[in-house]
Design brief:
By secondary structure, this protein is an alpha/beta fold. The chain has 7 helices and 10 strands. It has helices spanning 48-56, 95-105, 110-123, 139-152, 169-186, 197-203, 234-264; strands spanning 6-16, 21-32, 37-41, 63-68, 71-72, 80-83, 157-161, 189-194, 206-210, 217-222. It has a 6-stranded mixed β-sheet with strand order 6-7-8-3-9-10, with helices on both faces. A 4-stranded antiparallel β-sheet has the order 2-1-4-5, covered by helices on one side. Strand 7, helix 5 and strand 8 form a beta-alpha-beta unit. Helix 3 packs across helix 4 (139-152) and helix 6 (197-203) crosses helix 7. The longest helix is centred in the last third of the chain and has 31 residues, at 234-264. The chain starts with 5 loop residues before the first strand and ends with a helix. The protein binds adenosine-5'-triphosphate. Adenosine-5'-triphosphate binds next to strand 2 and helix 1. Keywords: ATP-binding, Cell membrane, Membrane, Nucleotide-binding, Transport. Belongs to the ABC transporter superfamily. It holds the Pfam family ABC_tran. Residues 9-237 form the ABC transporter domain.
């Protein structure tokens, strides 16, 4: 068994559509140690979600393998929790019931579920919202519930697909800080998809920049700035410029590809 928590080995993913074959991922190799906070960064269409979905076990790679916690990934599993951008809460359930849901499915005793739900409501500052329904919550609050719901399952691995992409800047920073606090406290391994360079530098131990079609690893770097990071600091901005250049190259490839395809159609 590997010492790494997640091992992505020679992963390729090809989508076959009516018109063309899309190579979404090509020769992806990543070893992610336990407790590392990894951001997958790149413009739209570079395969970030495809890779995350493969790790989640929602859509297997066309070739290659992924293992988590020493076991081959063939389907979703309890050691991997997923948080989506669009919250994915049950609208007919209260906040507390949404958080409790996965534990009820697992058949945990009622008292134990109630204790976990209380603890998570406190951890995510949701105590005053426990009886509300998702429609009566702001986007930021809904995303707190979505995070609490995944934390309830106590998965050592959290997979997050642009979870803060729909939030305003202030709410987003608040939730980034909450996530960093929870990550430091619970020592989760996190793979976090974003196309925000600033978000990646603010959060990650390691940033994996992906190329646009085929999705490959363009740069794999450790971020060694001390936490909590200051986006106004010179080192932060130097890194932002460096990554900005890498992402822009891929954005331009995306743009050229779109123009080329428009010309063919
Ligand atoms: N089910 C599918 N069928 C065909 N092509 C697909 C499918 N899913 C994704 N793709 C293609 O694979 C490539 C990678 O898509 P993916 O959604 O993983 O990118 P992404 O980096 O997550 O982008 P975004 O930030 O827009 O979500 C894109 O070119 C996309 O059009």
């Amino acid at each position: 068994m590997s010492a790494s928590h997640i091992v992505i080995s020679q992963v390729n993913k090809v989508f076959q559509t009516a018109e063309r074959e899309v190579v979404a991922l090509k020769d992806i190799n990543l070893e992610i140690p336990q407790g590392q906070f990894v951001c997958l960064l790149g413009p739209s269409g570079c395969g970030k979600s495809t890779l995350l979905n493969a790790v989640a076990g929602f859509a297997p790679p066309s070739s290659g393998s992924i293992s988590a916690d020493g076991r081959l990934v063939t389907a979703p599993g309890p050691e991997r929790g997923m948080v989506f951008q669009e919250y994915a809460l049950f609208p007919w359930m209260t906040v507390a019931d949404n958080i409790a849901f996965g534990l009820q499915i697992k058949g945990q005793p009622k008292a134990q579920i109630a204790a976990t739900v209380d603890q998570l409501l406190t951890m995510l500052s949701l105590q005053d919202f426990r009886s509300r329904y998702p429609k009566d919550l702001s986007g930021g609050m809904r995303q707190r519930v979505a995070i609490a719901r995944v934390l309830a399952l106590d998965s050592p691995i959290m997979l997050m697909d642009e979870p803060f992409g729909a939030l305003d800047a202030l709410t987003r920073r608040n939730l980034q800080d909450e996530l960093l606090r929870i990550w430091a406290e619970l020592k989760k391994t996190i793979i976090f998809v974003t196309h925000s360079i600033e978000e990646a530098i603010y959060l990650a131990d390691r940033i994996v920049v992906m190329t646009y079609r085929p999705g490959t690893v363009k740069r794999d770097m450790l971020v060694e700035l001390p936490r909590l990071r200051d986006p106004a600091a010179a080192e932060f901005n130097a890194l932002k410029r460096e990554l900005g250049q890498l992402v822009m190259e891929e954005q331009q490839r995306h743009h050229h590809d779109e123009l080329r395809m428009a010309a063919v159609d």
